[in-house]
């Protein structure tokens, strides 16, 4: 028999667990009671975990949102890094930057993190600009390789050196072609294009974006940090910059009925193609409402 105190503690624990679950489920229901935006994304914007399918006893699956920010530079030297779309630095207008009320750089930029909002753009002008930069980079590589080949022939290089140079150019050509293909077919089309602590400031930006190149736009919460380059003492004029550390929600649970559409590919030999309906609710929190398999690519 339980002692009275033990019974009370057990009852309190049960009530606490039920209360927490009720609160969480209630918030989920309220969030999903109003759909404010719906995006049709694919494997380009939703990353499957590398280990998916390797542990047969684990049938759970979460997809991570793959996003980037507009490029601050398109120089050839930076392309190897930027072509992987790992950009997180975002330049802001002064009102948006000031809304975060960052402290002095003497406090360290690492500790200058604030909660705020970002403006997401899907398949809009930012992605078109990225494609244009990728195409220009590809064209520059072609022109440079052709010029190098002509110069080597005119210089009367030995046959073995010509062959070695030709092999090197072929490898560079293949890398350039692969980067251009990835930009067209695999790169994420989801961009963070603005940020502010005050949601109303982004509403103004949202209102200015319209027309056929605007894409789909929505506001979501995120964690914003002061950019390390902003605090560099190089005495040059700078435009305010921040680093978008993470979106408030960027890992999505895939329900078992949807996960079953995705074949387990332990060897990762094929690119799994799929489409997913992503809905954002009342509190700007996303969930998957549908997922269909498009096929696989060797």
Structure report:
The chain is α+β, with helices and mostly antiparallel strands and 298 residues long. The strands form three sheets. A five-stranded antiparallel beta sheet has the order 4-8-7-5-6. It has a domain at 35-75 and 88-122 and 190-297. It is globular. It has helices spanning 4-32, 76-82, 94-98, 125-154, 159-185, 199-208, 256-259, and strands spanning 37-42, 46-47, 62-65, 89-91, 113-122, 190-196, 216-226, 241-247, 251-253, 271-280, 286-297. The N and C termini lie far apart (64 Å).
Structural class: alpha+beta
Please provide the ordered H/E string of secondary-structure elements. HEEEHEHEHHEHEEEHEE
Residue stretches low in confidence (pLDDT < 50, at least 5 long) are none
> Quick one: biggest sheet?
5 strands, antiparallel
Distance between the termini: 64 Å
Strand order of the largest sheet: 4-8-7-5-6
Shape field: globular
Q: In percent terms, what proportion of residues is strand?
A: 25-35%
Question: What is the count of β-strands?
Answer: 11
Helix share, percent: 25-40%
Mean pLDDT: 81
Radius of gyration: 25 Å
Q: TL;DR of this structure?
A:
This protein has about 300 residues and is α+β, with helices and mostly antiparallel strands. The chain has seven helices and eleven strands.
List keywords for this structure.
3-stranded antiparallel beta sheet, 7 helices, globular, 298 residues, alpha+beta, 38% helix, 5-stranded antiparallel beta sheet, single chain, 11 strands
């Amino acid at each position: 028999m339980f002692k009275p105190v033990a019974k009370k503690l057990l009852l309190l624990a049960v009530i606490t667990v039920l209360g927490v679950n009720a609160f969480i489920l209630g918030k989920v229901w309220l969030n999903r009671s109003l759909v404010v935006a719906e995006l049709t994304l694919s494997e380009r914007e939703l990353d499957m975990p590398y280990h998916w399918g390797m542990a047969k006893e684990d049938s759970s699956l979460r997809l991570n949102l793959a996003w980037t920010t507009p490029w601050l530079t398109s120089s050839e030297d930076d392309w190897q890094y930027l072509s992987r779309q790992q950009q997180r630095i975002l330049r802001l207008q002064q009102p948006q930057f000031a809304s975060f009320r960052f402290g002095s750089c003497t406090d360290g930029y690492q500790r200058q993190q604030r909660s705020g909002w970002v403006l997401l753009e899907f398949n809009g002008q930012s992605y078109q600009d990225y494609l244009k930069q990728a195409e220009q980079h590809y064209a520059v590589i072609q022109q440079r390789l052709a010029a190098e080949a002509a110069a080597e022939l005119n210089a009367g290089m030995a046959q073995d050196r010509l062959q070695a140079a030709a092999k090197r150019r072929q490898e560079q050509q293949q890398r350039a072609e692969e980067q251009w293909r990835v930009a067209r077919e695999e790169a994420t089309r989801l961009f963070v294009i603005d940020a502010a602590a005050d949601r109303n400031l982004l509403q103004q930006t949202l209102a200015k974006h319209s027309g056929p190149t605007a894409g789909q736009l929505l506001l979501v919460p995120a964690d914003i940090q002061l950019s390390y380059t902003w605090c560099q003492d190089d005495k040059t004029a700078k435009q305010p910059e921040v680093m978008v550390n993470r979106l408030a929600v960027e890992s999505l649970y895939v329900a078992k009925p949807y996960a079953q559409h995705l074949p387990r590919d332990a060897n990762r030999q094929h690119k799994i193609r799929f489409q997913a309906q992503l809905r954002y609710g009342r509190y700007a929190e996303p969930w998957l409402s549908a997922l269909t398999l498009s096929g696989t690519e060797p």
